[in-house]
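Troubleshooting: if your tokenizer reports a length mismatch, compare your output against this known-good record of 95 residues.
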Amino acid sequence: MFLMFLLLSIGFNFDLIMGPYAIVRIHDTIDSDFFHYAMRGRLLLEHGLYGWYPSYAGGVPAFAWQSPPDHLLTLISAFIPMWLVYALLRITLMT
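Known-good structure output:
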């Protein structure tokens, strides 16, 4: 049973294991979505609860995105590296 789950997880995460040498890269959420969580977490630590997100030209209101500055992943990313959060989320999905 353990071997079956190990083979399934290797199959689903093959592009993460191979890194830049993978033929097709499927898992790009850590590059596209989690980048914003990490930046918001950094802003939260530096400035507290903020109302303006300055990363885009001219900035946008902090609540203009799908998740606000006090979102759970933003709070977690302020203290834990996002690659670890991503790995833990993947493990919980696989189990």
